[in-house]
From TrEMBL:
<feature type="domain" description="RNase H type-1">
    <location>
        <begin position="530"/>
        <end position="651"/>
    </location>
</feature>
<dbReference type="Pfam" id="PF13456">
    <property type="entry name" value="RVT_3"/>
</dbReference>
<dbReference type="InterPro" id="IPR044730">
    <property type="entry name" value="RNase_H-like_dom_plant"/>
</dbReference>
<dbReference type="InterPro" id="IPR026960">
    <property type="entry name" value="RVT-Znf"/>
</dbReference>
<protein>
    <recommendedName>
        <fullName>Reverse transcriptase</fullName>
    </recommendedName>
</protein>
<dbReference type="InterPro" id="IPR012337">
    <property type="entry name" value="RNaseH-like_sf"/>
</dbReference>
<dbReference type="Pfam" id="PF13966">
    <property type="entry name" value="zf-RVT"/>
</dbReference>
<dbReference type="GO" id="GO:0004523">
    <property type="term" value="F:RNA-DNA hybrid ribonuclease activity"/>
</dbReference>
<feature type="domain" description="Reverse transcriptase zinc-binding">
    <location>
        <begin position="338"/>
        <end position="425"/>
    </location>
</feature>
<dbReference type="InterPro" id="IPR036397">
    <property type="entry name" value="RNaseH_sf"/>
</dbReference>
<dbReference type="GO" id="GO:0003676">
    <property type="term" value="F:nucleic acid binding"/>
</dbReference>
<dbReference type="InterPro" id="IPR002156">
    <property type="entry name" value="RNaseH_domain"/>
</dbReference>
Length: 681
């Protein structure tokens, strides 16, 4: 069975057991059998009568005889629409052996029927969350444990409802309150509504999309449809989300026949709807009028119609080689495909992933253990309940540090200035003297250690943070022992635990596979193409240097174009190298780039994993690679790819393109490990 995730097949599952314990029937066989049952029922679906009830039972009997399954009539219910007499309904229920369906029936976590009070319909959601949270409160869980439970279990309780229905704000806020604001159901619900808006905009072929087209849109523009008082509340919510959706979508240019240069958002840049310099009397209205017969941009025409900045952005759009219709791009993801994660950012008012404070990204994206991440986050938020902090809201007998008994207890004093803390720092693996660090708060402390010259050799800032967090964790534990009347542990015992944890955590943080640090020739009978790009205000030069299995240079080629996006240029360079190898009838070739996004674009199987700017170039590259017997694309560190970079830079500064001879280049340009500088020779 294929696993469909966000509209894309992400893997295959091979069922190894039945649907229930002791049931030998495979889930995929069950799906096929259930489809047969549906078709049997559809053929007998005529009217609510005694005769039809008997036919209904015959369908079940035939299905059970074919599949080997049995129907549990005691758990089954029957629903009657308005107009069915009560005496006939009772007779049919007796024949079927089923009860009548109640108005408060729930299926897959959602009420089947709606009342006029939507908040009342979804009160069960609040009750479910409250019961789960109540059971958590009876456990002595750490903060990290509570956070994990809330994020993994608490969030899942309402996800299905949020994904398929509009949750009233009163219900959403009650759930948020119970989950201690770790997970905003109101935000999630709005993001899911945005997803349905995206689906209404882009999905024309699924059953849901067909129904929406026929019932609500009638082939009109989704953004032009007005809200009707007779529309369902769910559809009204989708239409209300259009203003937010419109801020984060852009046309994906195919053949350009359905995209207007006057009314559509069609350029994926800061200015998505560039204003033409000429007016409509010139008879130009559609994007396809700027595309030549060989599926390239008409550069001269674009320069005449748009200003310099917009021209650069338009020329960066890579056109497909095939005649495909225009579509839509979601600007919140590099792939151009919708995701709930980016939708949540937009609902919360964050324009992009880059708008998130780098401080929080550093914490949550680090390889540090989740428990230490939480300590780091609390430190940044000043969220530790020290005596100095508590004294602002309540009266305390003493506000002095409980460990050293000196100054007012703040978290910075406790972890850095306290005599006990100083001893821990000095005897830790860092051997750090606190007096030598010029810092009076955590911000100054971080900035001091971010300077390479202030850290011990070969130790990164992240490794410094791991050591610091291990010390903080131990110090906070000792502090709590003193506050709650327990004896203070031996400092050597504490140090032993700290250093053990430091070794464990540093092993995790530093356990990364290093890229190779020297260029290696390809296998025997293969060629290797190293590719790179050099940019300026007018465009860029792409270059490839081809070497054989002995490391000898076979050929060098450069090309100039008007692209200004370096990422696109990196992929264009690889495509140029592939075309060069096809022309030379090479059978086995490896392409190397120092841009990881380029390598991912050629390695990933689906468009979801590929930057939308590179999708058409990837198709072009894959078409070229059909001419090779064997080919590979690999990543090479920048420090091992300077030859290709130097050649591109040299060609750009000397205005040289085409095939270049080795004799035209100096040894400095042909270096793999040193960047060429024109003024240095």
């Amino acid at each position: 069975m294929g696993l469909l995730l966000n509209g894309t097949v992400q893997g295959v599952i091979s069922p190894s057991c039945g649907l229930r314990q002791g049931d030998p029937l495979s889930p995929d066989l069950f799906i096929i059998a259930a489809d047969v049952l549906s078709r049997l029922l559809m053929t007998k679906n005529e009217a609510a009568s005694v005769k039809e009830a008997n036919n209904f039972l015959k369908c079940f009997d035939e299905y059970c005889a074919w599949s080997g399954q049995a129907v549990n009539y005691q758990k089954s219910t029957v629903y009657f629409t308005q107009g069915v007499p009560s005496n006939k309904a009772k007779e049919i229920m007796n024949i079927l052996g089923m009860k009548r369906m109640q108005n408060d029936s729930i299926y897959l976590g959602l009420p089947l029927f709606r009342s006029f009070k939507r908040s009342k319909d979804l009160n069960f959601l609040v009750d479910k969350v409250m019961k789960r949270v109540k059971s958590w409160k009876t456990r002595l869980l750490s903060k990290a444990g509570r956070a994990c439970l809330i994020q993994s279990v608490g969030s899942s309780l309402a996800t299905y409802v949020a994904a398929s229905d509009v949750i009233p704000k009163t219900i959403a806020r009650k759930v948020d309150k119970e989950l201690t604001d770790f997970w905003k159901i109101e935000t999630i619900n709005s993001a899911f509504i945005l997803k349905w808006g995206w689906k209404a905009l882009t999905d024309k072929e699924s059953v849901w999309g067909t129904i929406i087209q026929n019932k609500y849109l009638n082939h009109r523009n989704f953004f032009d449809v007005e809200i009707n008082s007779r529309d369902s509340s769910f559809w009204k919510s989708i239409l209300k989300s259009r203003s937010l959706l419109l801020n984060h979508v852009c046309r994906k240019i195919g053949n350009g026949k359905e995209t207007s240069i006057w009314f559509d958002l069609w350029v994926p840049s800061a200015n998505r709807s560039p204003t033409p310099l000429l007016d409509a009397t010139h008879g130009v209205a559609w994007v396809n009028q700027f595309i030549t017969e060989d599926d390239c941009w008409d550069e001269e025409m674009i320069k005449n119609w748009f200003n310099r900045a917009d021209t650069k952005a338009i020329l960066n759009i890579q056109l497909p080689q095939d005649d495909v219709k225009d579509d839509w791009l979601w600007m919140g993801e590099p792939s151009g495909l919708f995701s709930i994660k980016s939708a949540c950012r937009f609902v919360k008012g964050e324009n992009s992933a880059t708008s998130v404070n780098p401080k929080w990204k550093m914490i949550w994206n680090s390889k540090v253990h989740p428990r230490l991440k939480l300590i780091w986050w609390q430190m940044e938020r000043n969220a530790f309940p020290t005596r100095g902090k508590l004294s602002c809201v309540m009266e305390l007998n003493s506000i002095c540090c409980p460990v050293g008994g000196e100054e007012t207890e703040t978290f910075f004093h406790l972890m850095w200035k306290c005599t006990y803390a100083k001893a821990l720092w000095f005897n830790s693996s860092l051997g750090l003297r606190v007096e030598l660090v010029d810092a009076h708060d955590w911000e100054q402390w971080k900035n001091w250690f971010l300077e390479d010259t202030n850290r011990p050799p070969n130790i990164t800032f992240l490794e410094i943070m791991v050591i610091a967090l291990c010390v903080m964790e131990a110090m906070w534990k000792e502090r709590n022992s003193v506050v709650h009347g327990q004896s203070k542990n031996s400092i050597w015992q504490v140090l032993s635990n700290i250093n053990r944890k430091i070794r464990e955590q540093l092993h995790v943080v530093s356990n990364a596979v290093e890229d190779f640090c020297a260029w290696s020739p390809p296998p025997a009978s293969w060629l290797c193409c190293n590719c790179d790009v050099s940019c300026d205000d007018e465009g860029m030069v792409v270059a490839t240097v081809v070497r054989d299995d002995q490391g000898r240079i076979v050929t060098i080629k450069t090309e100039r174009n008007h692209l200004t996006d370096p990422l696109i240029g990196e992929v264009v360079a690889v495509c140029m190298a592939a075309k060069l190898m096809i022309d030379k009838k090479v059978a086995h070739v490896v392409f190397q780039s120092d841009n990881i996004e380029t390598v991912k674009a050629f390695s990933n199987a689906t468009d979801r994993d590929c930057n939308f700017k590179l999708v058409n170039l990837r198709s072009r590259f894959q078409q070229l690679c059909k001419g090779f017997q064997n080919w590979e694309v690999g990543h090479v560190p920048r420090r091992c790819n300077f030859m290709a970079h130097n050649i591109a830079k040299w060609a750009r500064e000397n205005s040289v393109t085409g095939i270049i001879l080795c004799s035209d280049l100096t040894a400095e340009v042909l270096s793999d490990y040193v960047e060429w500088n024109k003024h240095a020779g």
